[in-house]
Amino acid sequence: MSLTTSITAFVSDKDAEFRKHKKVLLTCLRANVTVPKETCDYFGETSPDECTLDNKLQTDLVEGKHFKLLERDHEEMGFEIFIDKLPKNVYKIRFENSW
What we know:
- The protein is of the alpha+beta class and about 100 residues long.
- It has helices at about 15-30, 35-45, 50-55, and strands spanning about 5-10, 60, 65-75, 75-80, 90-99.
- The protein contains three helices and five strands.
């Protein structure tokens, strides 16, 4: 079994359209009512939830352009993130490991 790490960046949520649909989504979820079709279509899901908000804002990072994999041996590895090469408005980077 081997370890795989994925790296995802998330861009800012300052966009007016995103903010509008985020407000609608969160209000509907808290009130336990159906999310309007327009908001579902915006997020590209039939049943959006709070995780949908991060998914809408995520952007893929490209090895060699945004980060470099540092493999030292078969039991150890690391990453270097090139901060100046990240997409504009990135405010969060997520590292996820899977085996």
